[in-house]
Amino acid sequence: MIKNSVKKLGLINTMEGYSYLALLFIGMPLKYYMDFPVAVKIFGILHGVLFVTFCLLLLTSWQKTKWKFSENIIFFLAVLIPFGTFFTSRKIQSYE
Questions:
Q1: What is residue 1's predicted lDDT score, i.e. its pLDDT?
Q2: What is the DSSP code string of 27-45?
Q3: How far apart are CA 80 and CA 96, in angstroms?
Q4: Burial of 1 by CB count in 10 Å (0-12 exposed, 13-18 middle, 19+ buried)?
């Protein structure tokens, strides 16, 4: 059960990182260079849903695995930093 929760967290962590990159490098250029603002709404909603899902899975994994509070803070802050999720994915996979 614990392994499954951490595995889901790692998957959402990676997907959230890619959705952020898609928002920055696909959605934003489409909005400002191609005059297609709907792209940002689509990628923004996708990124937002994945971010909220990540936060919920982080809380669930923290309760099940009894990680240190400091590790959870690092995982959460990494999501807020561009490319941060890719640096923490190895650490999350080490708990599987």
A1: 64
A2: IHHHHHHS--THHHHHHHH
A3: 23
A4: exposed
Where helices occur in 1-96 by DSSP H, the ranges are 2-22, 28-33, 38-65, 69-80, 84-93
Rounded to two decimals, what is the model's pTM? 0.87
Closest CA to 72 of 4, 20, 13: 13
**Number of C-alpha atoms within 13 angstroms, CB side, residue 38?**
1
List of the chain residues with pLDDT < 70: 1-2, 96
Q: Report whether 22 contacts 90 (CB < 8 A).
A: no
Cα 95 to Cα 64: distance, rounded to the nearest angstrom: 12
